[in-house]
From TrEMBL, chains A, B:
Residues 80-298 form the Phosphate acetyl/butaryl transferase domain. It comes from Marseilla massiliensis. This is Phosphate butyryltransferase. One of its GO terms (molecular function) is acyltransferase activity. The keyword Acyltransferase applies. Keywords: Acyltransferase, Transferase. Belongs to the phosphate acetyltransferase and butyryltransferase family. PANTHER family: PHOSPHATE ACETYLTRANSFERASE. The keyword Cytoplasm does not apply. Gene3D superfamilies: Isopropylmalate Dehydrogenase (3.40.718.10). InterPro entries: P_Ac_Bu_trans, Phos_Acetyltrans/Butyryltrans, PTA_PTB.
Amino acid sequence: MQRICDFDTLTGSLRSLPTRKRVAVVCPGDSHTEYVIRRALEEQTADFLLVDGGLTRWNIGEVCRLYPGRVEVRPAATPDDAARMAVEMVREGHADVLMKGSINTDNLLRAVLDKERGLLERGRVMSHVTAIEAPGYSKLLFATDVAVIPRPTLDQFDAMLRYAVSVCRSLGMAVPRVALLHCTEKVSEKFPHTLSYEELKRRAREGAYGDVFVDGPMDVKTACDPESGELKGIKSPVCGNADVLVFPNIESGNTFYKTMSLFGRARMAGMLCGTTAPVVVASRADTGDSKYTSLALACLASAE
Amino acid sequence: MQRICDFDTLTGSLRSLPTRKRVAVVCPGDSHTEYVIRRALEEQTADFLLVDGGLTRWNIGEVCRLYPGRVEVRPAATPDDAARMAVEMVREGHADVLMKGSINTDNLLRAVLDKERGLLERGRVMSHVTAIEAPGYSKLLFATDVAVIPRPTLDQFDAMLRYAVSVCRSLGMAVPRVALLHCTEKVSEKFPHTLSYEELKRRAREGAYGDVFVDGPMDVKTACDPESGELKGIKSPVCGNADVLVFPNIESGNTFYKTMSLFGRARMAGMLCGTTAPVVVASRADTGDSKYTSLALACLASAE
């Protein structure tokens, strides 16, 4: 597979998947979700199972007629019902990806995380992977975790790293470069995440994550700006050339995400990993374009 | 005083101070520090006490001759000696601002934090205030703490807020708008800093910080982007219009700082507050321009 370095190539490459993915959408009522569905149908990049929990403000019947065999609609009494039904369909293999429409994220996650009938197997870690296309950076940049895990334990860091690397590979990156983020290069007991980083690097050297470069602790600039590493005299295949940024806590991850979006004028996409199928939980404020890119990311990741 | 909204006005306004500030520089050996000194002398914006700990690679004698009465040079045996001497001179009132040259930050801070002969009075909190000029933001933005306090306690948050507001006032902002940062708007025991935020807001309402708006928790985008707050239906004089961002921990503050500098193409300046005189500790990688702006910020703040 050709390596994907920007969002247009990412969405475009959906067409080259051997089979179209089927996406279960919970409450496809809003206009951004409508945009995603119509675009994927038109570009022949995905099929849909629409679980409608009411309040749909566009003509679902029309797309069923326009694209026969590619859209199935299931009515549900409430958004919570819709979430339960969609999760059930994914569990039974009727859909490859779960996508949030206008349902509240907390309500969707309740169904996803249900111990008996959800999508997270016992003992698995659920985490969020963000893809970022930033002006001035020559390739896609992945960040984790900007949304789900407040203060990762070693096990959670390990899972975050695995998921991000796996997403990179599904986009054609042979040897992902992973930066473990902190304010400085110093490992210290005062900052327990830097001790976890030492263990992650040890595991990486032992081959736990396959063909990969893992380095840190280092700051955002050292990870993404070749000059900064040189000034500091650091020699590492990760410095100035990171594909993945692993953040020490949710506040720093979220700060990066929001700052890149607002001040870095970056395009963002994202998905939940660790579940039996990828889950797209783009927020209601996201543009249709951003939601479509998130869907494409999830479809490519589920094809791995 | 006219409100200062960008760095050029900030450095320019140094000229309008009633008296020129005197700056003690520890180890003025490097070319960036030379640039700052020569520029301030030429523009008549500051006078200098240069405590030279060796390794100076430019002609200090020349500036003494060129600007008679405005430059004093003191030799020191080592950088540590230079730090001790410069701190002593500031303590005795011979200089208004302390500035780091090519000495290591840790070594300088050892002299600054010395319990008997340093610049931090017993029981005071030392914190870092960063000023940011970002393309696309219509005014200066202040962030704290990106460099010193790992995980602020309530007392430390209180001091950080006071220092940042005081710096804003020294730049002519009548009613600073302070955003208390987190990933969401939710106050929760799971995130103890959000509980501190509640107390800070209570104190602000009671007038502890003077004429000021304090609100949060909120994320970077809600604080700095008017649209985000509107989308979420939040009404606050701080949303989308923040002057000060108070970060919950050093990792998130540092991430903001580095991301703004690299991806936000922002200009940065900074200083230490809480000490008996402001301390400029710009890092060696900073440009001469950035160092000069930091010096200007410290001189204006010390004129308060």
